[in-house]
Amino acid sequence: MNTSLIQPYRETVQITFPSFKSYTKGQAIYKQDQISEGFYLVKAGSVKLQKMLPNGFQTILKIATAGEIIGEGDFNNALPIKNLSYAIALEKGTLIQKIDSFCNLSQAGKAKLTQHLVDRTIEASHRHERLISLDADQRIKAVVKELAIKIGKKYGDETLLKINLTHEDFALLSDSSRQTVTKTFSTLKKQGIINYSRNRILFRNLENFKP
Fold first, then answer.
1. Residue 183: which H helix or E strand, with range?
2. What is the pTM of this model?
3. Measured between alpha carbons, how far is 29 from 49 in angstroms, rounded to an integer?
4. What gap in Å lies between CA 117 and CA 96, rounded to an integer?
5. Which residues form the HTH crp-type domain (predicted)?
């Protein structure tokens, strides 16, 4: 394949995105099936990676938070690649940094990007294992605990998870249904294990919280 015409296109695309860009809640960073501009680093805030499936249903691949890399690309920036999902900012002030070129990265940056691609495979495998080994109630608990460990704030024995996800979002993340999420959260609240309101889940003791 002649890449002489593709490379200038890639270079043109790269310079259209500033080094840092701030997004508001619900704003798309990139869209599924559009030609990818490469990789991005989440500097602050959180991003929902949502995918439209061929059958018309949707799923959420993951919630990316500060320090994580999102996007599609190849190390040579030679071939056009389509985005595999929509990337949507979950909160006001979500800060994204464009990673322009693998070649220009430091050794630490190259290692982080390589690890990101490895992590994708591991996460996909982990999700598949969770789907076949846990029931819906357990998957929901596993998802919220993972998020709480990842971005929750500790207050003594309690952990507060603040995230702009609906019950439908939690259902898509856990491969379950909105009704099951609502039932699971309600049961946990009645048992005194969590307390929740819109965009907040308070774990009474996250260490003792079992999927």
1. helix 178-190
2. 0.82
3. 10
4. 18
5. 134-207
- pLDDT, position 109: 74
What is residue 179's three-state secondary structure?
helix
Angle at 196 between CA 191 and CA 197, to 5 degrees: 145
Instruction: List where CATH 2.60.120.10 sits in the chain.
Output: 6-132
Token pair of 173, please? 């993340």
Q: Is there a contact between 195 and 202 (Cβ–Cβ < 8 Å)?
A: yes
The candidate with the shortest Cα–Cα distance to 80, out of 72, 89, 70, is 72
* φ, ψ dihedrals at 174, nearest 5°: -105, 5
pLDDT of residue 7: 37
Instruction: Report which secondary-structure segment, H or E, holds 131.
Output: helix 107-133
At 138 the pLDDT is 97
- Cα–Cα distance between 40 and 48 in angstroms, integer? 13
pLDDT in tens, 143-180: 999 999 999 999 999 999 999 999 999 999 999 999 99
Tell me what pLDDT residue 108 has: 78
pLDDT lower than 50: segments of the chain = 1-17
* Residue closest to 161 by CA, chosen among 192, 211, 199, 207: 199
Report the CATH fold assignment for 135-208: Arc Repressor Mutant, subunit A (1.10.10)
